[in-house]
Amino acid sequence: MTTQTKLDQGWIAALSDRTGEPAWLRERRLAAWGRFTELPVPAYERTRLKESQFEDFAPAQGSGPVRSWDELPAALREQVGDPAGRALVVLANGRAVYRQLPEALPEGVVITDLATAVREHAVLVEPRLLVRGEQGLDNKVTALSGALHTGGLFVYVPKGVAVPVPVEYILWMDESGVAVGDVALIVTEARAEVTVLETAVSAPGVERSARFGLIDVFPGEDARVVCGNVQAFGQGVQSLVVRRVLPAPRSHVDWVAAEFGAELSVNEMDSRLDGRGSEVRALGVFFAGDRQHIDLEMRMIHTGRETASDILVRGVVRDQGRAVYGPYTLIKHDAKDSTGFQRGNTLVLDPQARAYSIPQLHVQEDEVQGAGHAATVGKVDPEQLFYLQSRGLTLQQARRLIVDGFFYPVTDHIPVEALKTRVMAMVERKMSA
Amino acid sequence: MSRPTLEIRDLRVSIEGKEIVKGLSLTIKGGEVHAIMGPNGSGKSTLAYTLMGHPRYVVEDGEVLLDGDDVLEMEPDERARRGLFLAFQYPVEIPGVTVANFLRTAYNAVHGDGKEVSVLEFHKKLREEMAALQIDEEFAGRYLNEGFSGGEKKRHEILQMSLLRPRIAIMDETDSGLDIDALKIVAEGVNRLRSDELGVLVITHYQRILRYLQPDYVHIMMDGQIVRSGGRELAEELEEKGYDWLKSEIGA
Lengths: 433, 252
What we know:
The complex is a heterodimer.
Chain A: H1 9-19, H2 23-38, H3 52-55, E1 58-59, H4 74-80, E2 87-92, E3 95-100, E4 110-113, H5 114-120, H6 122-125, H7 131-137, H8 140-148, E5 149-157, E6 167-173, E7 178-188, E8 193-202, E9 209-218, E10 224-232, E11 237-245, E12 252-259, E13 264-273, E14 279-288, E15 293-302, E16 308-317, E17 322-331, E18 339-348, E19 354-357, E20 360-363, E21 370-379, H9 382-389, H10 395-411, H11 417-432
Parallel strand pairs in A: 1-7, 2-6, 5-7, 6-8, 7-9, 8-10, 9-11, 10-12, 11-13, 12-14, 13-15, 14-16, 15-17, 16-18, 17-19, 17-20, 18-21
Antiparallel strand pairs in A: 2-3, 4-5
Chain B: E1 5-15, E2 18-29, E3 33-37, H1 44-52, E4 58-66, E5 69-70, H2 76-81, E6 84-87, E7 94-98, H3 99-111, H4 119-132, E8 143-144, H5 150-164, E9 168-172, H6 180-193, E10 199-204, H7 208-213, E11 217-222, E12 225-230, H8 232-250
Parallel strand pairs in B: 3-10, 3-11, 6-9, 9-10
Antiparallel strand pairs in B: 1-2, 1-4, 4-5, 7-8, 11-12
Helix pairs in contact in B: 5-6
């Protein structure tokens, strides 16, 4: 199935030729490749990445678009569920294969795959696509996504418009030994509202494949954006994804990160609170079992005045799973009257599981409204287990109930019902595995 | 269901190498209420936890039989499914788990396969039992024991007892921390459940709760052993004369 073509500049240039993309995008793609080759491997504190984790892959073959939902692979359809009435953009092995939108979306709203957007909405796409890398914000992951992307998502919401249904971005992988790059760009004008939910899933039996993803979000002034992701890849997949947001003044962004799958996953969220009065809230749920390694890196950089950030994460490690919770909040000098809070708790279910909690909070401005962090790593309390067992629950049932309850403070705050349900179902699935 | 029998034979229990229960024998049958009274540190709570199977307590010797079956071989959840129940002195908090969810899970676990009730049926049952114990309906939506007052915790223990319908119930200092009104409600809750199919072991420091529960037998426990057994009047005598009287009586 997989080609033996090596991932190199020649391949990137040939990819650009094949897509027939405009000159500006070809330039940005090649520049991203240039940065990729120069940038060092990211040095996450407790996640050691090697060069080989960026190199030992062939480009994905991909397949052409399908005409109807029913033509998509059964395993994918099963994981996504009933498509009726939903807004879906589906990528298979990095290429757009299916899109459906509900009838009567508000005028001016664009929801499409990235290649189509580049062709049909260049005027909206060009000012934002891959520009933050050129501004020096790339790391090796985002640079590779920018160079390698064969597809992605584009969402545009005009001024004052609320998109009535969540935009669902589905990433499906069923090729082994390949690297996939994708880029999502979400742009809103002032007072717009939109929810984007990303779901990453793979076919059973996929091995040694990797996703390099980049999500760039640009909320307009007073806009409200919710960006959720459920990472439920199989354990033969490596998932390195960076999510960035640059909120305009008074905009409000909710990140929801739910990490359940992959052999190795680093979900890096980078929020630059520059717009005065902007707010970013990040919720995170993770569950690492077997030999999984999951790293949730959440960065809140405050440069604007009256900006607010809040991080709330709960995670479970089991078996020989490893998890890293690494929140980083920086309130820079002049970001007066800002607030930055972090809370993270990890529950360790088994003696061989490991959890690392590395919270960082740096306040350079004297006049802040509030800042603080709290992080714990703990085991299940044996008294809780005994209490539940004394009421007839088996050890397994008791643990499941305690874990459900443990996640509750985060799941309860998930602002989108569909996402909340999906996250809780994933916890349930992990606990019964 | 037949009349249950719990037999404790020459039980010896240690915790972290220190012997706490030092050869205790007692038989409780359905329809009977036994009270164990004793000063602090006499081993009353150790006995309660041991009967329910807390892993911290090590049985050094002796037997515990429920209808002739070896209880000490069973995990705590199996004991519960066989009809043992412990009303905790200090019920454990479990954040994020609602009372309703917990109670329904426990109900289905104890009443077993094939007898599970629907959510609707269960909630009807739960409302009835809660009303009997004068527990407000909003209680079902709260997190297990989190932020409960002392009285709420104890009433919740009795609520569990009335839903799980145990055959042998052990009540560990259920009266502690209760005012007189709460104590009456709790005692009435237990009295309502009394039948030939339920044997009760009340562990208490004070005689107060016994006025409402009217035990058939009273046992005095000191230093890990039952030092005297008698009828209800023994509790009154003890209350009147104090534990020191008994100590001198038995020459301890």
